Amino acid sequence: MEVFIIILIPFIGTALGAGMVFFLKDRIKPPLQKLLSGFAAGVMISASIWSLLIPSVEMAEMQNKISWLPATIGFLVGILFLLLLDKIIPHLHVSNTNPEGIHSSFKETTMLVLAVTLHNIPEGMAVGVTIAGAINNSIGMTLVGAMALAIGIAIQNFPEGAIISMPLRTHGVSKRRAFVYGTLSGIVEPVATCITILLTNLVTPMLSYVLAFAAGAMIYVVVEELIPESQEKTNSDIGTIGVAIGFVLMMVLDIALG
């Protein structure tokens, strides 16, 4: 039951964000959008370091491997994996939205769904490998730590749900349908989590590599999507503040609860 709840937490964050279509008129103000994008970046950077890379190094040491080698290889492969997905799957980058956060066409909104899907794949993987590590009693990995990571990702999923549902509403889709579509955009995350758990259980000796792989995938999303969005045009300082807040919050959650 604990594992089931942890798996659902990030998805709930997306659903709550999509629910903003019932409360906000037409858009998220640009300063708030930059703050949320920066916050999401900070959370993912912190989670990559404290919840994934450091445990990867510690696990390699416990297995008498070269401590930095699995983290290095896994991280680079994770970056390359997301780069490949980015090239193969056509999608609109989140940072390509206009200053009001409203997209100019229904086609662009549809493409944005693919962009959010790309975001959710590494996030689901990160939660999955953390849960698998806890189940296998790996060094530095606990279900409480997995819960902290899931909560942090859920917080940054909130704006993602909103940037799907709200533009759909402006294109004439009913609030209820816009909410459903925004929520479903996050369904890939628990799926990726479950698949990763199953695969990780089959390759437990490679867990240190898988942790770093998830970290690399998440950092790719940060560098390619979230940071450019938070620093685009005006109010870039707000995005920087968001990064700092997100990083510190995730760090505190991971250390205090993990």
List keywords for this structure.
single chain; mainly alpha
Protein described:
The protein is mainly alpha-helical. It has one domain. Helix content is 78%, strand content 0%. It has nine helices and no strands. The protein has helices at 2-18, 30-62, 68-88, 106-135, 143-170, 175-184, 188-202, 207-231, 236-257. Helix 1 (2-18) runs antiparallel to helix 7 (188-202) and helix 2 (30-62) runs parallel beside helix 9 (236-257). It is globular and about 60 Å long. The two termini are 19 Å apart. Mean pLDDT is 79; it is low at 94-104.
SSE topology:
Elements (H helix, E strand, L loop, with lengths): L1 H17 L11 H33 L5 H21 L17 H30 L7 H28 L4 H10 L3 H15 L4 H25 L4 H22 L1
Helix pairs in contact: 1-4, 1-5, 1-6, 1-7, 2-3, 2-5, 2-8, 2-9, 3-8, 4-5, 4-7, 4-8, 5-6, 5-9, 8-9
| Structural classification | mainly alpha
User: How many helical elements?
Assistant: 9
Give a quick account of the main beta sheet: strands, pairing sense, barrel closure: none
Task: Give the helix level as a range of percent.
Answer: over 70%
Structurally, how many domains make up the residues? 1
Number of strands: 0
Strand content: under 5%
Low-confidence stretches: 94-104
Rounded radius of gyration (Å): 18 Å
Mean pLDDT: 79
Tertiary shape: globular
Order of helices and strands: HHHHHHHHH
